[in-house]
Amino acid sequence: MGETVKLIGAFGSGFVHRAEVALRFKGVPYELILEDLRNKSELLLKHNPVHKLVPVLLHGHRSVCESLIIVEYIEEAFDGPRLLPADPYERAVARFWAHFIDQKVMNTQMRATYDPFSRSLQLVPAMQKCSLNILLVAVRKAVLDVLILTEAKQNLSLLEAQLEGKRFFGGDSIGLVDIAASPLAHWVGVFEEVCGVAVLTDEEYPELCEWAKRYIDDKTVKQCLPSRDEHVAIFSSCKEMFRAIADSQQE
After folding, report:
1. Kind of enzyme, top EC level (predicted)?
2. Are 198 and 150 within 8 A, CB to CB?
3. CA distances (Å), 101 to each of 38, 87, 97, 122, in order?
4. What is the mean pLDDT of residues 70-79?
5. What sign for the dihedral angle of Cα 117, 151, 209, 89?
6. Residue 122 — φ and ψ, nearest 5°?
């Protein structure tokens, strides 16, 4: 009998999804342990004492942290369909794009989506109070929003080019790069809907949008994809909470 596999996660986390979908593609039985990130358990703190974040993969007595590192560990530790190419060069290229998505694309994409909404909450009270200094800071930050949006669009264009003529980033099947980019397929759309911002559009990025539809329609992916309606409801309640806090500061 093999060693037990457990995954410490949290509802709706795109990073946890990366690890979970890799396990499902490999056909690895696992136990999902849902964490309350407002009251972190001793189990999480013990196995990820550095960052204290999910996901954490527990394989027997070993613990592995960071979503893409977990995906690569799953690839090497378990049999099943390959998530990375067999060719060393192609494998290196896949790792490059996965790292690019993790370090560049997701950061700018989330900021391009969320920051304008956050900034609007700061700008209104500044205008009402007629505070020139606060207003100037808000305007400078609005200019920064434009720069972030420009970078986000440039990053998306680079990914768009990688999909030309392909169903998925690695070819005909889902692999490491698709798993790395999975937040673009589901989570970014949720944030855009809640924040009223449209960055990843069919008009500008047709290949990426078609890829996103294919990804979330995959039968294995569907098994561990959070409900969009539930996700929207959760983030909408957070949005209203932030708005209420901003309104209270105007009084």
Report:
1. transferase
2. no
3. 27, 21, 6, 30
4. 98
5. negative
6. -85, -35
